[in-house]
Amino acid sequence: MRRFPLLAALLLVLVLAACGGGSSKPYTAAGTKACLTQKGFTGVTTNADTVGFIAAFAANGGIQAKSSTGNVLTIAFTQGPGSVAGTEKAFRRNAPANLRPHMSDIMEAQGSAVLVWTVSPTTQELSDAEGCLAS
């Protein structure tokens, strides 16, 4: 009878140790680019002149792509989750004045990636983009 709580505790420790084990590598532009094209995004580029200043200088690159509805997505791939807040702040600070009040609608972070859209993405657009994030 006393073995069960000990066994349950050991199992819990193993499960918790396994969670997040594969998430230590930050997402990268190189790892994400091909998937966006497969998901129907067009004009997918990592060209620094196209992705914009903030994404171009992100530690793990930047991407710009256009969804099938014409919604332009810019992704800045930071060094890691600890760098996300600074990148979000940079996007907010450099956004056109008319977009600043809507940044919470068009920007989100997933792991080490900061995604910024032209307009609020559809559920499918967001799901496709997030599903493509890779190291």
State the total count of DSSP E strands: 5
Binned, the helix content reads 40-55%
Radius of gyration over alpha carbons? 18 Å
The N- to C-terminal Cα distance equals 45 Å
Based on the structure, what is the oligomeric state of the protein chains?
Answer: single chain
Which residues sit in consecutive blocks of at least 5 with pLDDT less than 50?
Answer: 6-22
Helix and strand string, N-terminal first? Answer: HHEHHEEHHEEH
> Could you say how many structural domains there are in total?
1
Note the total helix count: 7
Largest sheet: 5 strands, antiparallel
Structural class: alpha+beta
Strand content: 15-25%
Sheet with most strands: strand arrangement: 1-2-3-5-4
Please tell me what the overall shape is. Answer: globular
Overall residue-averaged pLDDT value: 87
Report on the architecture of this protein.
The N and C termini lie far apart (45 Å). The chain has one domain. It has 7 helices and 5 strands, in the order H-H-E-H-H-E-E-H-H-E-E-H. It has 135 residues and is an alpha+beta fold. The longest helix is centred in the first third of the chain and has 16 residues, at 3-18.
Write the layout of secondary structure elements.
Blueprint: H1 3-18, H2 29-38, E1 42-45, H3 48-51, H4 53-56, E2 62-66, E3 72-77, H5 84-94, H6 103-106, E4 107-110, E5 113-117, H7 123-132
Antiparallel strand pairs: 1-2, 2-3, 3-5, 4-5
Short description, anyone?
It is built from seven helices and five strands; from the N terminus they run ααβααββααββα.
Descriptive tags:
135 residues, alpha+beta, five-stranded antiparallel β-sheet, 7 helices, globular
